[in-house]
Amino acid sequence: MKKIEIVTTFLEYDSLAELTVADQELMNRAIEVRKNAYAPYSKFRVGAAILLEDGTVVVGSNQENAAFPSGLCAERTAIFYVGANYPGKRIVKMAITASSDLKITNSPIPPCGACRQSILEYEVKQDTPIEMYFMGAEGKVCYSPSLVNILPFHFDKDSM
């Protein structure tokens, strides 16, 4: 038997104002599209903005459904759009923001497990890291240099 330690490292910014102007703009796109979330059941609104290698920004918001498994998170809405409409384009980074109609969300909110797995698929496929910024409605912003950093013990094509 051996002990395996997994360590992840994040940067935490006190506010959006500490990011570069370009990263602020990407997060602002996520904040803007968050308003388009269809969240009548959870009241939890998420926006995601993805920067592609050619400078294109793709956005998505969560879309719920009365048959709960039929809805889709913002991150997957955006990344699947990239896969369908920009095949072969490398994803450079992703900005995610979440808010709630029911409570204040001022702590960074990372992607859910299903979204982490979906983003990982693209990171593995393109064989380069996808930088990630995530936050609540306001306040601190977390930065991860890659999805693997958030999901270090993961399942991918090499697992099959």
Word description of this protein:
This protein is an alpha+beta fold. It is 28% helix and 22% strand. It contains four helices and six strands, in the order βαββαβαββα. It has a six-stranded mixed β-sheet with strand order 1-6-5-4-2-3. A hairpin with a 4-residue loop joins β2 (44-52) and β3 (57-61). The radius of gyration is 15 Å and the shape is globular.
Layout of strands and helices, then pairs:
Layout: E1 11-13, H1 21-34, E2 44-52, E3 57-61, H2 74-85, E4 91-100, H3 113-126, E5 131-135, E6 141-144, H4 147-150
Parallel strand pairs: 4-5
Antiparallel strand pairs: 1-6, 2-3, 2-4, 5-6
Helix pairs in contact: 2-3
List keywords for this structure.
alpha+beta, 4 helices
- Contiguous low-pLDDT stretches (5 residues minimum) are none
Query: What gross morphology would you assign?
Result: globular
Q: Give the DSSP E fraction (strand runs of 2 or more residues).
A: 15-25%
> Strand arrangement, largest sheet?
1-6-5-4-2-3
